Amino acid sequence: MNVRIMGYYTVIAGIVLACLVFPVYGESDEYNLSDLVFLTEEFPPFQFAKDGVVTGLTTDILHAIGEEAGFLITDADISLVPLQEGLSTVRETPGTVIFSVAKTPEREDLYRWVGPFTSYDIVLYAKRSNPVTIKEAEDLRSYTIGAVTGDVSGEMLLDLGMDPGSLRTDPDPRSLFTMLDEGTIDLLATGDAAGNYFAGEIGQRPGLYRIVYQIDSIPLYFAFHKDTPDAVTDSFTDALDRISQAPPAGEMSRIDEIISTWVPSRGLSALTYYTEEYPPYNFKENGDVSGISADILREVFSFTGADSGAAKIIHGPWDTGYNTVLDTPGTVLFSTARSEERNDLFLWAGPVITDKSVIFGLNRSGSTGNGFCDEKKLRIGTVAAVTDDISGDDLRAAGYRDILYAQDIPSLVTALEDGTIDGFAYAYLPGMSLIEQYAKDPDAIVPLCTLDTHEYYYACNRDVPAPIVTAFQETLDLIKTEKDQDGVSMYERILYRYIEPGYATSVITPLQVQELVSYTADTLSRDAEKTLSDINAGRPPFLDAEQPDLYVFVYDTNATMVAHAANPSMVGANYQGKTDVTGKPFRDEIMQGALANGTGWVDYLYSSPAETGLFWKTTAYELVRGSDGREFVVCSGMYKTHEDTGI
Q1: How far are the Cα atoms of 360, 486, 553 from residue 576, in angstroms, in the given order?
Q2: What mean pLDDT comes out for the span 614-634?
Q3: C-alpha closest to that of 572 among 210, 172, 114
Q4: At what angle do helices 409-417 and 428-438 cross, to 10 degrees?
Q5: 283: closest CA among 173, 369, 409?
Q6: Secondary structure of 104-141 as H, E, C letters
Q7: Domains delineated in the chain
Q8: Is 588 strand, coil or helix?
Q9: Pick from 54, 22, 42, 38: which is nearest to 149 by CA?
Q10: Which of the listed residues 41, 162, 520, 577 has the most CB atoms within 10 Å of its CB?
């Protein structure tokens, strides 16, 4: 068969395939909602591919519209295509719809529109290591910026006065993130919620990028072929209106339920949070719930843009909150010790803090030490007869059988003081705080021995949508790692507000630290570019897989972070004059010591990637000249431990 004949048959086959995928309608043909074919681009969380199926916020809304209108939309009815291709297809092909689309003046007369049904923010992403500052639109003219081909973000950048020659477009947002990573472009314009998704798609950690500017907030629509019959768009509009109406009882509308599932700010503020009197983690003060976990929760609201005034925080008895969250969708319990028995009962976000479950008793000669815990015949109390505090589980696991159950700590303190019990089990920090509040002589009651150690979390009802729990977790992680203008994380500030710094349980030796510093210095001297890249990627040995608190970080001699194996979000920031949570300028001390002596050690307070809390840390440093001629200060540290006291 010659080339011309092959080309002819190829064209015919293409026409037949197009007719099969997109039904051809004449001007007089009738069709309805069930005949529509839906197109969309990859734009998480609104729509994206997962396991070969298009899913996301807008696809959930689309399925709900179909259910409301009485027709079934199948996976085969929705196709993922590049934006420009989808817009072109819907312009030319009756019976087709594209979503989620911004209605611009240029597009308005090309389609029939239904919506808006929600909105999103168009933002500019930069690499953390790129010191970009955008204060006003005029600043955009100094940079090369990427945008998805045909996306409204490109049009907006040009409307703001950007030089068309500085705009780079590509139909695949992954390619644009690769360009951003390689430095081909300075900034990338995309949806605020889409950035972390696409960064992960190209194998990069989201912390390597940051939002530097918000361009605009964009309403989103369904765009139908221009000649779609009124009956079709009216039916679609009516169904959208019905799922947008809130029920009479003030509950969320169907569309709000869907949006809350996918958009953290909506979902988090729609939950109801239960807590108890459990200082310093959560407690009532001047009518409000305060404490470590309560303050972190409010920071989660702030970081995600959630409406903290809309969220309900209910303070009450432990067992009431526990059983309510166990059985009621849309609820969260804090602070909750995570254990094997509870693990499958909830969905978890955390950990917030680590604490010991101990037995408190009277401070009598010979009664301290873990030997006390071997006396299984002792009468030991714990809180709650209906739903046990975690200490009740610990007591039974330790072999205690003569257990007195009480409803609250004041009752246990009284029982201990009058000799009814020999001790009571409770978490160490809350126990010490409540003893100080309720005991006649707080100094007479001390922790005698340790039962177990637990991490404390926010426990979500199992029907809380997984994307909300994931967003909760990701925001908690950000609060722990993101440093403010003073070089301190909000997590560190909150902990220091309520508790004394502690000692780590993970043991790292000075020799391990020094060997890692020396190895890194050597590799920098031989290949600086590759070494810095490997550190920021968290590759071993720069980040120890088995001991994540053993890691390396590198400054230039101006105290700018150029690489960090455990927290790449710090890369690119200058830390000159910045301190730990106590106000100690330890980074300046590192710089001064390195420039004066070449090597040394510095002590300070810091959080650890291996365990929750605020710990004493000591860091070794070494000045080295890299293969590129620059001087670097290589650092690695260890979190201090202390000898076991039996507590």
Answers
A1: 45, 9, 15
A2: 97
A3: 210
A4: 70
A5: 409
A6: CCCCHHHEEEEEEEEEEEEEEEEECCCCCCCCCHHHHH
A7: 21-117+221-260 (3.40.190.10), 118-219 (3.40.190.10), 265-481 (3.40.190.290), 510-639 (3.30.450.20)
A8: helix
A9: 42
A10: 520
Residues 39 and 140: their CA atoms lie apart, in Å, by: 32
* Rounded distance between C-alpha atoms, residue 116 and residue 93, angstroms: 23
Tokens matching residue 83: 């934006």
pTM higher than 0.85 for the full model?
Answer: no
Structure token pair of residue 386: 């209906």
CA–CA separation, 82 and 93 (whole Å): 16
Q: By the 8 A CB rule, do 592 and 474 touch?
A: no
Which residue, among 300, 314, 620, has the nearest Cα to 482 in the 3D structure?
300
The per-residue pLDDT for range 109-158, each reduced to its tens digit, is: 999 999 999 888 889 998 877 778 888 888 998 999 999 998 889 989 99
CA 91, CA 111: separation in Å to the nearest integer?
7
287-306 per-position pLDDT tens digit? 999 999 999 999 999 877 77
Residues 250-292: tens digit of each pLDDT: 567 889 888 888 877 788 988 999 999 999 999 999 999 999 9
Rounded to 10 deg, the angle between the 57-69 and 254-262 helix axes is 160
> Amino acid identity of 169?
T
* Residue 246 DSSP class: P
- Can you tell me the distance from the alpha carbon of 213 to that of 124, in angstroms, rounded to the nearest whole number? 5
Q: How many CB atoms lie within 10 A of CB 256?
A: 18
Q: Give the whole-angstrom CA distance, residue 503 versus residue 640.
A: 6
Quote the pLDDT of residue 205: 59
Residue 30: predicted pLDDT: 60
Residue 175 is encoded by which pair of tokens? 């390619």
Per-residue CA distances from 192 to 156, 216, 627 (Å): 15, 11, 38
- CA-CA distances (angstroms) from residue 291 to 100, 175, 299, 433? 42, 44, 12, 12
Name the band, by pLDDT with cuts 50, 70 and 90, for residue 407. confident
Among 418, 289, 610, 437, CA closest to 426: 437
> What is the rounded distance in angstroms from the CA atom of residue 323 to the CA atom of residue 333?
10
Q: 394: which 2 tokens? A: 């610990």
Q: Residue 147's pLDDT is what?
A: 95
Q: In Å, how far from its chain's centre is CA 556?
A: 29
Q: What is the spatial distance between Cα 363 and Cα 472, in angstroms, rounded to a whole number?
A: 42
